[in-house]
Amino acid sequence: MIAESDMDPSVQTNVTRLSLQSPPRTAPDFLAAEEPLEIRVRGRSIAVTMRTPGHDEELASGFLLTEGILRRRADIIEIAHCATDPGAALTGNILNVFLAPDVPLDLEKLTRHVFSASSCGLCGKASIDSVFMQFPPLEARVEIETKVLFELPKRLRASQSAFEATGGLHGAALFNRAGELLIAREDIGRHNAVDKVIGHAFLNEITAADILVVSGRASFEIMQKALAARVGAVVAVSAPSSLAVEFAREANQSLYGFVRDKTANHYN
User: Fold this and answer.
1) pTM score, two decimals?
2) Of the four, 18, 36, 94, 219, which is 20 to 30 A from 145 by CA?
3) What pLDDT was estimated at residue 121?
4) CA gap 181, 174 in Å, rounded
5) What is the CATH number of domain 138-266?
């Protein structure tokens, strides 16, 4: 099995620095690591995602939770990197999730299969209703104090050590209502970073996560993942999409966008 500590989120390379003020020079640089991860459940491949290696168990758990396959921590017996395929055992790019016998597995209901194609024919309202069949709207809305809100992106940014080295990774973090950081993760994919923090909370049965903060924009799928994890507020450094705003209003979630040092938009 590949140890999490062996998975480096960055890769060193040489680059040529170009400048109008000085001649070209060769220097070391760091790139965000990117590798495929195949997630298998009961021996069947259900997803392949391009991710930054590390915290793969959290990524798989978060993905399966937000796809409606997992409901409680006891649904998982074990998560392990594939040891039978020599190539996979070497790279750690295949992950097996072993579910409890009583957990139903309906692969036809995976929302990623539904929403990944722009030609699927679903309108925004139909997409939202489809999600609500698995994850009902929240009963109570989470509102964030203004002074807490403006500190959240700074606290996420301070946790992004790999971004500091590479400049090429997205960040996601879960906070409680008081603005205390519970868990932060980085990944080359925005949705993967969200799956990792949600998966961490799921595996460790953390129930105090009220706020999800993302380093980029807020999409429909980000809102859906937050709802699946029963997170009541989403804070985005950048813009939300129109469907994300519509989803947040119908799901009774608070959605904040363009959150900077002293300004923000509240879309609810």
Assistant:
1) 0.87
2) 219
3) 40
4) 6
5) 3.40.140.10
